[in-house]
Amino acid sequence: MAFGDLKTDKGVAELNRFLEDKSYVSGYEPTKADVETFQALGNKAPNASYPHALRWYNHIKSFSDAERKSFGAGANPLKTAAPTTAPPAAKDDDDDDVDLFASDEEQDAEAERIREERLKAYADKKAKKPALIAKSSIVLDVKPWDDETDMKEMEKHVRTIEMEGLIWGASKLVPVGYGINKLQIMCVVEDDKVSVDLLVEEIQKFEDFVQSVDIAAFNKI
């Protein structure tokens, strides 16, 4: 309880009400709180209309200065805030806790936002990067029926085959015996677009020139 200004009747009246059922200002024995309250009265005894305050005053006055200095510490109502002032402090502490919790959530949200931005930036960068096209280098052995087959005409027919992802390359004639040569021709194909089996079938359709087609080499590039 705060008594207010003990040099006023209002302050003394509050002290009197406080001491109605108490012997001392703080606890069950005289303390420095009693000395400070006593001094706050300005060495002026409460009048008889405040009997409880007057009783207390005369009791504290009965002690010598040395005895008063030896009193233990006590809570001084003159310096103690009213009970109504305590809850706001606790409320502030609670608010601080809530703020800290909210701060953690905000930090988590910020970290998640940064992570999402980085993932998006990586995805955009990857999307802009040209996709790697799988290709193969193939060497085909195209064999004629006999030594009378026009090899130049054979090659001319083979090169007429067009497919998306097919590029014809260099060629040469390779002897196989008995005056017969085979056409060895190179091509590069995109694996996703050109079926090697289909390409072989297309070459074999030139039945007047082609007896068979073998794959002499097949390398991924």
UniProtKB/TrEMBL annotation:
The keyword Translocase does not apply. Residues 100-126 form the Elongation factor 1 beta central acidic region eukaryote domain. Keywords: Elongation factor, Protein biosynthesis. InterPro entries: Arc1-like_N (IPR053836), eEF-1beta-like_sf (IPR036219), EF-1_beta_acid_region_euk (IPR018940), EF1B_bsu/dsu (IPR049720), EF1B_bsu/dsu_GNE (IPR014038), Glutathione-S-Trfase_C_sf (IPR036282), Transl_elong_EF1B/ribsomal_bS6 (IPR014717), Transl_elong_EF1B_B/D_CS (IPR001326). Residues 74-98 are annotated as: Disordered. This is Elongation factor 1-beta. GO terms for molecular function: guanyl-nucleotide exchange factor activity; translation elongation factor activity. Residues 135-221 form the Translation elongation factor EF1B beta/delta subunit guanine nucleotide exchange domain. It holds the Pfam family Arc1p_N_like. The keyword Kinase does not apply. Belongs to the EF-1-beta/EF-1-delta family. One of its GO terms (cellular component) is eukaryotic translation elongation factor 1 complex. Residues 79-89 have a biased composition (Low complexity).
